[in-house]
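Board notes (copied after class):
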Amino acid sequence: MSSSTFENTMDSVSEVLSQWAMNLICSEIPAAVQHAASRHLLDGVGLAIAAHRFKAATAACTVARTLTSNLGVRMIGGAEQLAVSGAALANGVLIHALDFDDTHSRGLVHATAVTLPAAFAVGQSRQSSGSEVLAASIVGYETVCRVAAASPHGFHARGLHGTSVSGTLAAALVTSRLQNASAKIASNALGIAGSVSGGLLEFLDTGSDTKTLHPGLASMNGVIAAQLAAAGGQGPNTVLEGKRGLYAALSARSADPGFVIAGLGESWETSQISIKPIPACQLLHVTLDAAKGSSIPVGEIVRIEAVVHPDSAAVVCEPRDRKNSPRTPYDAKFSLPWSLAAQLIDGEITIDTYPAKFVERPDVIRLAELVEITLGPAEGIAAEAAGLVRIHSRNGSVWEGAVSGSLGTLAHPVSDDFLIAKFRANCGGSPLVEELIDLTLNLALQPNLDRVHDLASSIVIKEAQPA
């Protein structure tokens, strides 16, 4: 069935989505959408390598290495043969560990961290072609973005991580696609995946890094859900729109389940995903962008005003005492006052901003205490909101910075050159990086994923060696 002529002839959202996903033809996907997906896969591979370099996903990799098989499945940057579920777990955590991975603004989800792990793990186990893996990844991107965007900020408002909730379903559909499942089995996989979707945001009140585990767990559970469905397990076909379904149970805001299947094969959420230029929560990026170029010396600042979308403020500005003085590096990544102060002092935010030894910097904490938050309009999507910062000087002068949205988002996209520069930085100085860039951006031309994993493993090994 052609994706462009797909018709809604099924009874439930999951059945419609599954029918489309199992019959999607890669050659009929617009070239721009394929390129967008390849960009995000490249970003994800680079982030996994960076996480190895910074030892940022140790627990997940340790556990994944206990889940072994002889299927030739590897985590990105690893050499051990793992179970498909183990590789999905490790890759999801590796990609998300630095909070430097992409974001779909309307759904506020990290799409690659749940899509790539399943696609690469299952793709290896079945020796799928690069074209097959790319098509399955696009199925995953469309699923995680659409499921979350059908209830914007709804899962977050309930205290749940939207990436984790939606990502389990995406991984299940990616796996079903690569397993050549029927639409009925794929719909069962979605129904099973919905029963293990979750991911608490309680880490915001403790400074723990539980959130880094969510994409890996979602990917792993999605893979297992699809395996269960293939073995005869059944799930409710009303998993999304049912009166006890995903939205009714897990979203605190109204939902439009029809959005999940609206325009399938015609409009593409894969092209709406942003690339992160800053390794911190997406919701504080626009404020950091607005503050760039301040002409007031840090020592002369007496007050900083920041206008913030209410949905963003609830995550990155409250409670103020803990946001001013984060307890852990991950805590700092979710603190707008601390991150803004660090940028004003250092001139930029990089991966090196957030190590534990820097979190208690007295100069950053003092400046963070001068930040005053004003709530902006509640309309619109938080991750697409404008940013406004006013910095007051001791001599009475005021510098103002404003941006209509943050860099990397749909209205302010980053170029391929920007993405490649980010990838190179994440991978370090290995001469193998250029080949890995070429292979990943042209994944559809590859016979399988073997060379991609060979290169990633070699880069990680080289970077781990003492200089």
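Comment from the instructor: The first helix runs from residue 13 to 23. Strands lie at 68-73, 103-104, 273-274, 301-308, 371-375, 387-393, 398-403.
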